[in-house]
Structure formats: C-alpha cells, structure tokens
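re: ur question from earlier - yeah i can do the single chain one, its not a big deal. heres the input i used so u can compare w yours
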Amino acid sequence: GKNLTGQDLRKLKLTKANLRQTNLTGANLEGVSLFGSLSEGAVFKGANLRNADLESGNYEDADFSDAILEGAFVNNAQFVRVNIKGSDWTDVVLRKDIQKALCAIADGVNPTTGVSTRESLMCP
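and the output i got, formated as tokens:
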C-alpha cells in the first residue's frame, strides 16, 4: 500500500478507491468520500475523518486507533477485526448490531478530543 501519512487529502475523491494496506496515519480526510473504498488493512491512526463518507467501504483489519470519526457516514461499511482504541465516534449513526460489535472492543480516550471511545459509541 501507499504511504499518505500526515497528508491533507480533503480535495480528493476516493470513491471506490483501492486503499488496501495504505498508511493514512494522521491524514486529514475531513468530509472526503471514501464510499465503497477497499480499505482492508488500511491505517487511519489519528486521522481526521470528521463528516467523511465511509459508506459501503470494506475496513476489515483496518486501524482506526485515535482517529476522529465525528459525524462520519458509515452505512453498510464493514468493520471486521478493526482497532478502534481511542477513536471518537460522536454523532455517527450506527446499526444496532454494528454498534454492539464495536462496543465489545471499544476502549480508550481520543487524545485530540478527550472523548471516551465507549461514550462516543453510546455503549450501554
């Protein structure tokens, strides 16, 4: 995969992009469309994904640790074996089964927003 660490990618259209194994650590993806992207094993560690469109994307084995997903759209996205430690999911609308699966592994506090991952997912 490519290395896009710390890049400002806000102008990009990444709809249906192949981002497998891509390193997006600390990247600014605010408002970016990743609709239908193939992002297996991608690293979004500490990335800004505020209001990004992750719908219908495959994020199997992806690393969202310390990422900010506030207000992101995740309908039909696949979150299998993901790392979400310290990620912020404030205002993300999740299907109940997805929420339950993410709550089972939710842990940590986002270093940027100070929000607890479990709290942001509204875990019971």
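The CA atoms of residues 59 and 107 lie 18 Å apart. not sure if urs matches, ping me
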